[in-house]
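Trying the structure run again after the queue cleared.
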Amino acid sequence: MSTSDRRFLITGAAGKTGAATTRLLLEQGHAVTAFVYREDERSHALARAGADVVAGDLRDFRDVSAAMVGVESVYFCYPVEPGLIEATVNVAQAAAEAGVDAVVDMSQVSARRDAKSNAARQHWIAERLLDRGPFRTTHLRPTFFAEWINWGWLGGGEPGVLALPFGAGRHAPIAGDDQARVIAAVLTHPAPHDRQIYPLYGPVEMNHDEIAAAMSRALGTAVRYEPISVETFQAGLLARGVSQHLVQHLGNVAVDYRNGIFAGTNNLVEVITAQPPMTVEDYVAANRETFDVEAGRFAIAPTAA
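Done. Tokens:
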């Protein structure tokens, strides 16, 4: 039960950052409207935790407008699917009509005007659209989530394999839980963060050989990185039935990654939340059970055609 009169709208509430943010706000005593695409066990868990769950489509203005009633601030998170610009316009208009104070937008580190990824370029446009609103805005641009480590995992052998199309590129993986702490902090105290763009990183920049070594230490078993070509990666995803939109995005951000777009680190997570982000070893140790699978979501065997 909420102990404050502040209500927050969390879109993508069943996702990695949305679910964790919802729980943090509930723990702080706030009321949360959890906007999900469909009701399932994840949304039921949020309801049991105390959230007011609303199922709807961000591309439907009626759904968005209804969910915005009584809301102080909004976390806007849209998946890598067609419809981002339409959803952004709906959120902006509904937030303006409802007198919302702030919108925290989940963008991505590769968002820029000339991005080759359609999704990354649309995120840049979405940022500009939201900045035209009468509410405060903060745009979060994380590098690759630590959860990517699970997605590229090929277990069931010795050693385990991390197969991804990232060459010798580097980044500082950041966990969804750490991003959620940033989101909750900005939602509850948005004024200092108005019109800011925050690149979010984990604590240590690493290449994937170093990530594999950290995984090995956490799991207690040998892990090696096996780089695959972008073409092999995309072909494997298409063969699995992954959408053209997502495959186009993932292929182009893999090239961006190799070109250093995802590299870097900073102390923003610790500055905003007063707590440092998890290391790769911390993340793997905390999510050990997710590696008890033979293949992650986007794991393509190096020998795939």
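The CA atoms of residues 159 and 222 lie 5 Å apart. Worth checking whether this holds up in the mutant runs.
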